[in-house]
Amino acid sequence: MKTGKNGIDVLSINATRTPVGVSVFRSTDKQKAYETLIKKSELCSLENKDLRKWINEFKKAFKMVILTMNCDCGRIERKHLLYYYEWAIDERINKP
After folding, report:
1. Which of 39, 87, 31, 42 is CA-nearest to residue 64?
2. Which residue, 28, 19, 75, 86, is CA-closest to 47?
3. Tens digits of per-residue pLDDT, 35-53?
4. Closest residue by Cα to residue 86 from 60, 68, 61
5. Domain assignment of residue 24, yes or no
6. Residue of 17, 40, 71, 74 with fewest CB within 10 Å of its CB?
7. Calpha distance 68→82 (Å, rounded)
8. Quick one: which of 69, 95, 92, 93 has its CA closest to 82?
């Protein structure tokens, strides 16, 4: 606890993003996708047919910096994407 202006105690919490509760998402698959991104892992666009929609929602609702790359998972030869959460940029942008 710090003492702020006028002698009032101020509680400051400094933390990085943590997975949100299951109740926030209607789908457990969406929750798993969110937690995978937060754990700094990549998500192949072939994981779920709704993944692109979820990524867009994460970007808008939680203001997450999620970038894409070409995926080389080897599941199919067709070109597809890989999504990853760029936590360093997000920390710099959202720093008070």
Report:
1. 87
2. 75
3. 889 888 899 999 899 999 9
4. 68
5. no
6. 74
7. 5
8. 69
